[in-house]
Amino acid sequence: MNNQFPFPQDQNPFSSGSTRFPGNTMPMMPPIDQFPGRFPGQFPGQFPGQQGPSFPPSFPPGQQHSPEGNPPTNPPPSFTPQRQQQSIGTFAVDAGSIRGCLFRNTFIWLVNGSSFWFFPTFVGRRSVAGFRWTGRMWTYYGTDLNRISSFQCF
């Protein structure tokens, strides 16, 4: 078999211990911790003596750190609120109106007829998320605002 691209002996990429690319006389980049001016354990862009990031990030005690927040420690009120009269033509709940219910027990009526206690921890432009009461425990839940027919905060 005729080898059209023979490698000189010192540039053979298949020889053991090679740090060169085929056909290139430049050595490959050194390992990241061997760059000039770097100290072992130092992160890129970090000044000598500066502490690196902690993994996972540390939070002060008692501060919420999960994306969904923490569920309430108590069950919701034991009553089912009376649904208020709804104006004709209301199609979706506004994010600004439900934002006032953040971290409060809220009773939700969906357009499909279901209703439940909810503890919102996040309100976006088109959705709400938090914890839904199953009758025994809080479970994480989220829905689009256009699926909510009405709500009441307590």
Shape category: elongated
The main sheet orders its strands as 4-3-2-1-5
SS-based class: mainly beta
Order of helices and strands: HEEEEE
Low-confidence stretches: 53-65
Percent in helix: under 10%
* Beta-strand proportion: 15-25%
Radius of gyration (CA) equals 30 Å
Discrete helix count:
1
Distance between the termini: 84 Å
Q: Report the count of strand segments.
A: 5
The average pLDDT value, as a whole number, equals 75
Sheet of most strands:
5 strands, antiparallel
Provide an overview of this structure.
This protein is mainly β and 154 residues long. It is built from 1 helix and 5 strands; from the N terminus they run H-E-E-E-E-E. The protein has one helix spanning 95-99; strands at residues 106-110, 115-123, 127-133, 138-144, 148-153. A hairpin with a 3-residue loop joins strand 2 and strand 3 (127-133). The chain is elongated. Residues 53-65 have low confidence and may be disordered.
